[in-house]
Design goal:
By secondary structure, the protein is mainly alpha-helical. Helix content is 74%, strand content 0%. The longest helix has 38 residues, at 255-292. It is globular.
Length: 453
Amino acid sequence: MTNPELKRVLTLPAVAFIAIGFTIGGGVFVFTGIVFKITGQALPVAYLLAVIPVFISMLPIAMLGAAVPSTGANYKYPSRMVSPGLAFVGIWVYGLASFVGQIPLWALGCAEYARVYLPDFSPTLSAIGIVTAIFLVNVLGVKLAAQIQGVFVITLIAALLYYSAKGLLVFNPDNFSNMFQKGSTNLLLGTALLTFTYMGANGIIELGGEIIKPDKVIPAAFFIAFPVILVVYVLVAIATIGAVPAQTLLDAKEPLIFVSRLTAGKAGLFFFITGGAILALTTTLNALFIVGTKSALMIVQDGLLPAWMGRLNRRFGTPHIFLTIIWLFSIAGIISGFSLETLAAYAALGALIIFIPIQIAAVRLPQVYPEHYHKSRFKLEGFWLWFCPSVGILMVVFFSIIILHDLKSPLKICGFIAFIISGMIYYVLRKKYLGTKGIRLENLKSHEADWGS
């Protein structure tokens, strides 16, 4: 069970771009219109409030990334500090739900936006082409993938700022009259929904083994990404409401596209849809491929998956077998005809499941690895060591209840439970098999881990 030797090639700009690209996905295009109907003109305030609990819950993750940087950290932290079984099942569920649900969802979303200009193209074939292209880029190396991510993110931010500037040029302050007429309850509900638009940056801890000076870069990337994302979101919200009367905006099917048509002209609309909506989805897809294999490599290292699955390409140093598996599962999801809305809910639940063990691991860090904790450049102490993870756990529980309630169908809920049970069964069987080879997974928590990898 040797550790895969990934190359340290990622600098602060690259990691910050990955964090931003992972966060600014399709959410800002979808949720802006939805939440406007709930909060009315208080939408910018909802965006401002939504960032607070998410950012607080990211601080324990930044602390772990600085103190004990590691590839596949979403698995490695809880497996060493909480429970190997809990860590494995969390990654198992997240992987299945993301690769079969989330990646196909974003790929088909890209394809649908592209149909604005290419209406005769098959969304299914376009989605397959998009996923295949991103797969090939990631096989060629994480450095290339990160460089492309940087270009994509710069273009995406430029498109959103362009949209905001065009909207602000026709800004009408009267559109913000009666700003809080929807009431505080609606404002809180809208804030809760918008927290989803700030999720994703935690994925950068998966890259600890490929980041140059991760103890400095990981916390810095969080502190760079969140202000950038917040400013972009608030500007988009202000421009959207300021450009068009409230009732007109409520009647629009796609508010951002509607405002862009009014303010930017054909060329501007093309830039916004292509450089904004399509690239928002593409950057998220690319980030999923970049980080999607990292915890799997650590699971191979621990023996919970066969060693052949973790082989690295000799030329590019990339986990080509795992990338191929992700690609195959994603293609299966695209052509399956499954309800992508349901699978997207599964993906969100999977991401939430692995969030709780990470928060617990952060609380346990000072006791389990005190030397790493005290030497860390960034750490939470005293009240904050308990407060920040508690906010993260409460947020996860709250949103899990909302998502499960939204699923409604007992069959759909049972489908998610089946994901969990399948992972538990595999873990028990694999643990028993490893036991016959003299390997005890319980020992993972008692040995000093190689946190430099």
